[in-house]
Amino acid sequence: MSPRAASTDGAADPARLWIVVGMLCLLMLINFADRAVLGLAAVPIMREMGLSHSEFGLIAASFFTFFSLSAAIGGFLVNRVATTWVLAGLALIWSLCQLPMLLPVTVTALVANRVLLGFGEGPAYPVAVHAAYKWFPREHRALPTSLIAVGALAGNGIVAPVIVTVIAAWSWQAAFGLLGLLGIVWCVAWLMVAREGPLVAEGRVTGSVVEPEKQLSYRRLLGCRTVVGVEIVGFSAYWLLTIAIVWLPAFLHQAFGYTPIQAGWIMMLASLCQIILLPGVSSLSDGLKRRGVSSRIAGGWVACAAVLASGLMVILMSLSTGSVLVIVCTVVAFSLCNVMFVLGPVLVADVTPVAQRGAALGMVNAITTLAGPFAPTVMGVMVDASAGTPEGTRNALLLSGLLAVVGASAGFVLIDPEADRARDAPSLRMERSSA
After folding, report:
1. Any signal peptide, and if so, which residues (predicted)?
2. Is the dihedral of CA 397, 402, 407, 413 positive or negative?
């Protein structure tokens, strides 16, 4: 089946297409809510268990023990196994590991929960994106990616007031259990409605025969400038995302004087901003590509500009004392940084043969998310070094903002899908000739 025929077949069932995207959006909502619950419960957990900021940071970082490894494994797995079954299995793993939190919890049990949760959630985003790309051709991928990302970000912000309310009304353990039950419900619904998309392979047509798309060595693929650029910018953006998930509610409470409920609403404002921003930016990117603008500008420069602006806003936040300015910086900075997680996978897919796309997305995600274990630990150590004073929080935010500025600047130079495809074209032609 040619790409054109596949696209036509996929368009014959638009309802199924958007049902799948909607389910992937819900999956990522639950996924990130599972991560965010620890940060939203940071204050009662530290108080109940007698933890310092450094100790809590280490517990939060344990989530990433096998996160990057499982992301890479999951990427290679979906090159051979249907994404429908892989996603169901992943969701079941992280849902079941939440339920024991309803029992009396020790520090050891909390660490085990985060480690297992991280293993199950590591491949979730790249596999979900790969599943969506089986329904959308190259020039239409940014929008569905943004909708999946919105689900993830909604899990971090929009459900935050709900989680905080559950914690206040019952306990933080009840919030963990509720999310576990929601994950199991999603698994059942997904297996009832999900299908694999028609764009499972691409190639070129010679007469009536479709020649399958050739492949690159993974060493060559991972060494191309676009992939390296996406990894660098993505690392700095993921640093900010990890702070938002693990530390931002506590920072807003302890350093800027907001109550936990107010911090939850500020997180919700950031998510609402993302729901508007990300589809808008993705539509802009897709529209520019359809008008002939290069992927380097339409995807790479747009993403890098967003992360650069995010870093500058975090720096401004670290220097701010005004209540309104802190809210504005929080909402804008932690919204803009997520543009990279929408356009980054699109850029990687642009330079990757379809047969290798799942593995490439998984490996890039594995490298990008290495920021995960470092960010909460470094932030916690910096706060404790200042005896928990607001100055430590401000220094931690300043470091994060500078990291985003440096990463985005590197991305402007490195990301260039057109140049990478031109570089790889001779290798692909040579492989075809030898075949």
Report:
1. none
2. positive
Q: Which residue intervals of 170-259 are DSSP H helices?
A: 172-193, 218-222, 225-246, 248-254
| Contact assessment for residue 290 and residue 142, using Cβ atoms and an 8 Å cutoff | no
The residue with tokens 């520019």 is: 288
Q: Maximum Cα–Cα distance for the chain, whole Å?
A: 73
DSSP H or E segment with residue 11: helix 3-11
DSSP letter (8 states) at residue 62: G
Q: Give, for 151, the enclosing helix (H) or strand (E).
A: helix 142-157
Which domains does the chain carry? 10-199+216-429 (1.20.1250.20)
SS3 label, residue 369: coil
Q: Rounded to 5 degrees, what are φ and ψ at 212? A: -65, 150
Distance CA 83, CA 77 (A): 9
Q: How many CB atoms lie within 10 A of CB 319?
A: 12
pLDDT, tens only, 12-69 = 467 778 888 889 988 988 887 887 788 778 778 888 888 887 788 788 878 878 887 8
* Number of Cβ atoms within 10 Å of the Cβ of 223: 12
CA distance 351 to 357: 9
